[in-house]
Amino acid sequence: MISPDIPAPVTHRMPLPVRWLxxxxxxxxxxxxxxxxxMSAVMAVTILAQVFLRYVVxxxxxxxxxxxxxxxxxxxxxxxxxxxxxxxxxxxxxLTERLRGRAKTVVTGCALLVVLWFLWLMISQGxxxxxxxxxxxxxxxxxxxxxPYAAIPLGAIFMTVQVLLALCRLFLxxxxxxxx
Length: 180
Prior knowledge:
The chain has five helices and no strands. It is mostly helical.
């Protein structure tokens, strides 16, 4: 699921906390998919309405570009979470393709730990950002700016769950990296 270097889940042999993490991961994926569908539909309708109103009716919605921008941020981060789960992020595999066995597992694990560190930065700095903009409102929608910026820590939390699952599968799922 995560990538060709990460073994598939072997849930029945995993420790209970890992099975809980698997359930949390499935919930994160379901929430991300729902948000992606709803937000993509809202963004498409908003942009189509804006184009129609601007070029046919010669009037425009003052808030449509702002809404589309905020939705795009949410769509990007929720999509990134699903991409982590499905192993669809771009990666440099020059080294891992040449390695076998334990060396490949260790290098893949180190790469996942670096990703985990970066996601921790996103979560912690995203929380700081939310604290700093708690009272701000958007210019056109008068929306609390916490709503668009909450995508940063929430998306990072969803991705963190997927990376932790990848680490568990890598080291508890037999340890041997499987070929794609």
